[in-house]
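Predict both folds.
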Amino acid sequence: MFRITRGMAFAILMTSFAVAEKPGETVFSDDFENGDARWEMLDPNSWKLTTQDGNSTIEITQRGSEYKPPVRSPGHVALIRDLELGSFDITFRVRSTKDTGNHRDCCVFFNYQDDQHFYYVHLGAKPDPNSGQIMIVKEAPRLALTKNETLTPWDDQWHTVRVTRNVDSGEIVVFFDDMTTPHMKVVDKTFRKGRIGIGSFDDLNEFDDVVVRRR
């Protein structure tokens, strides 16, 4: 009878681990055609699954949120379940469904450890210290890591967002529609692993076609 020794079992385990850790591998994708069960909404009542013309999306339906973060930070947060990464690449499509002025926004959350330790990208229409920046939340109200001055050209059309994170270099790079020229970028090594999500500070957005790849 063939027997697997402890050493062989360990080798098999390490081989499987190496395959799972392959850079560039797509580790998550969701077009919401099978619902939104793969997401944890911190305020489920402000999100809904929508189907129109045969296409499903998720959207934020109200500006206010029942989720009250312990420090000043976004109120609409949808985190991918059962996925934590250090270095990654996320792309998705988003449509802003209400013009709320200079801070009309979409957010991307990453290296999210808990409600007081994470990064997020705030794609605000008009940049200022609280809008249109790459932010860090670390046991205090959100703080801008960037001094971005590039406007985010929101309208009522669909746009493509991409965020890349490299924990070894500390680089965070954000793209908006143009996938070759960064919208903004920064280097920071405070948080090295955590959950990933999408949402907004207090605005209305519709999301589709989320893809996460390991880097």
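Second protein follows, with its predicted structure tokens after the sequence.
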Amino acid sequence: MTSLKTTPEAVFNGLEDRVHFYFCLLVAVGLSRKQGRITSNRQKNAFIMKWLKNAGQIATFRQRASSEIVWLRGEILRHPPDRDLEPVLMLIYRTASEMRRT
């Protein structure tokens, strides 16, 4: 059996890009909520799905965050439509930001 070895370089590879990706997503969600376009978790999830679709068409995100886009879309589709994904996004963003500082 092959064992997976995780090196510090592998963990931190692309970390800055992921932090930027989650920052952009959280800002977009916050602005949309402030503008009154998001008033429920269902609307928030629909907004995030659309945002992820658009992000997948932008070369920078497609190259550097495609695994995050696929994973987040799967998370939304796998859970009830009223699940609030924002706390998960915040946790990922904060954790990645802290890892970047160490």
